[in-house]
Design a protein that fits this description.
Elements: H1 3-43
């Protein structure tokens, strides 16, 4: 494998990891909102 191919592969892996992190962050944010709503419903 050439250096260029390795760099391309590394960039793709980094992008996938970044996308996954972004997705998990969004999911956590959604869960937080849902939890807040559940607590509010319980208190009401």
């Amino acid at each position: 494998m050439s250096k260029e191919e390795l760099n391309k592969e590394a960039a793709e892996k980094a992008k996938k990891a970044e996308d996954k992190l972004k997705e998990e962050k969004e999911s956590a944010k959604d869960n937080t909102e849902e939890t807040k709503q559940n607590i509010q419903d319980t208190l009401d």
